[in-house]
Task: structure prediction
Amino acid sequence: MSTATDLPPAAGVRLAVQAHGITKRYGRTVALNQAKISIVDGQTHGLVGRNGAGKSTLVSILTGLQAPDEGTVAFGGEPAPPLGDRDAWRGRVACVYQKSTIIPALTVAENLFINRQSLTGGSLINWGRMRRRAGDLLAEYGVLVDPARPAAELTVEQRQLVEIARALSFGARFIILDEPTAQLDAAAIDRLFARIRALQHAGVTFLFISHHLREVYEICQTVTVFRDARHILTSPVADLSQDRLVDAMTGEAVGLRQVADRPAVPDSAPAVLAVSGLGLADQFTDVDLTVRRGEVVGLAGSASSGKVAVGEAVVGLRRPDTGEVRVAGQLIRPGSVPHALAGGIGFVPEDRHREGLVPLLSVAENGTMTIADRFGRFGAIAPGRRRAAAQRFITDLAVKTDGPDQPVAGLSGGNQQKVVMARALANDPVVLVLINPTAGVDVRSKETLLDVVDQAAASGTAVVIVSDELDDLRPCDRVLVMSHGRVVRTVARGWTDNELVAAIEGMTAQSAGQPGGGSDAGSGGSPAGAADVNVDADVSADESSGENSGV
Amino acid sequence: MSETPIQATAGPARQRLSLGRFRDLALVPAILVLIVVGALVDPVFLSSANLINVLQQQTELSLLVLAESLILIAGKFDLSLESTVGLAPALSVALIIPAASHGLGTELPAWTAVPICLLIGMAVGAFNGFLILKLKLSAFIVTLGMLIVLRGLQIGFTGGQNLFDLPLSFTYLGSAQWLGLPASVWLAVVAFALGIVLLAYFRQGRALYAIGGNVDAARAAGIRTDRVVWTVLVLGGLIAALAGLLMTGRLGSVAAAQGQNMIFTVFAAAVIGGVSMDGGKGTLFGALCGVLVLGLIQNILTLGGVSAQWIQAIYGVIILVALMLARLTSGKAQD
Result:
């Protein structure tokens, strides 16, 4: 199984981190089984694997939050400090977790110096000096954030940058980024990558964890694959084809998903969803959208483009100021989710943790929440009928679960998202609105979810996919690109990655040959100089002001 | 990397900062309005005797609000503070006075009364901390249970009687005058000043906000979260016992119902003052303003001749209205 194409480190190569023979058990579950990883100093090292492969456990062992049952960890050739010595750990390794460790109620400056406020003065906290020190620190790393702002006001991107700056300020030169791109739009990802490259030039080593293989090819020099708690392979990315990487992750020889060849939707097909003149202050203006029976329409754009708000307005999560939404000719009451559901709209909300799932309720209850009225009269719910309905979607969507009664919190991210999708499909919708339907899910679950989209379209559902993930948009018959609250372009089926990314970024296709295109895998990208970073900083300032007025 | 125009943000930074301070002062206009209203209702209101009376009556409440605010900011709850106000003085006095005056018969020397009283408060806080942090019980239910247990204990060993035969050292703080003001007022002022400085200018104080705001992040930053919370619970018990001591001195006896029903007012004052029930938000200055607002309202109602039968209903309604006004002026949802 673990026939690794492992490279013994060449003589003279310094290893920033070396973990060897790591085993970690939680009760009967083996989270890591003789796993290992060696990260060369100054490289950006990718770590990929499906949900449950053991990545999170490795992160907690490498950051000293947990001790391995067996095995050793060394930093720069020296054994890792004892678990209790938090300061020593923080001087060696830092992690930007998926879950933010920024405290929203405190200012940026205080977050940077939390629990070491005295660094900025005597035993009394000197607020002015702390803000100045924070300003210096942020400026040193080119993070354009006002240190006096409450951290709650930061965008996801700014928050991550603050966390990276904080990590570096502890003296750590090895930084773990745990799915840093999951909540960023394409432009923000490019800016993040430019920063990673610049820091890498300054001698910082990164461990980059991501579900997006294209990003691994773009930013990493070496990649390690974990599967089923084991180390599978470590290889320079340049020597590894995308298909082989996916094989290593899934353990089977399957290529990336082929786009199902649905026939084009005839012009005579009746329009099911008709959105006209939709507008919401500070979000979007005058959006028109018509989706025919069996058609899949994408809605793309950067995070501040208003695309998510349009999706949410269609399904009733937001109340638009102007315009109307009609399903099969019937007017949907604005801002009413129950009315939208009754009208035949099913939807996957943007964030499954916030709006998609109730974590402690069972798989069955979550998946059938929108149709609880069908299992009995006067609000009564017949458990048998609900279980049967749940069993159907568990089979249809290949949800990996102990059974309908398992709390949904115990599922992996991909399987949770399938339950959200099941909830969207439960009322047999004629219109399906999917907002970031594959965010934070593994390759396999992504395929299942997108297959479901194809099936739904084939059976005549009108589908709207709101996303800037190219893989999500591939099944679309056409993609509407939004910018600053307006639909600016329509891209017909048959687009190339470059073309669509260029449209989303507001460029013409010709000028999109940069790493920002994100499609020329394996090129590694050009090293970003200080000048590039400055430009990016300006862009991020624009972005943040846009966010402020927008959200 | 290269320098960036960070100075460009300094202007708005200062503005926002002063706005932040301003939110802290949101209740000050309300206090001024209440003073004007009070003066119109009855000229006696502005007499120094009445104002000192208002302050002294609010010292015990303000100390409890101080304790509760610390605990709330750290993201926990303590309902049992009001019972500590009664139990700590009652038990320490009962250990000293003879059995004939409802004592327990141990007849400890009189000087031990004050230290024992404070130690009892700390012990209650420590036991709450044990149940909440070690046994991982819900703070709400634990302290609700403790509220009932402590009250029951007090009624049990005093036979439901008030304790009168108090040692002189015990009543001193609650009845003495220092520089023309009651000693208890000075104590409350000092306690708040210390608390405000601790929370604003010390690492340990800021740790409370970090824990209440995001306990995982606080732990990841190296803060010993359990130890800090435990300390705060013990401190809360200590302050509650001190409040009980002051109340005993002011009234000259330990009433069987001493402190009863205070906790609702304590929470109301804290929330009106901007302390979040969810933790991580609020200041002690704001909480103090909350206390003053409620104290002035109560005084004005009394001076206005509102009949004793109705005063409770009106006071409750006014607290609800004050909550709504605080919600409007702060512009944020209370959580």
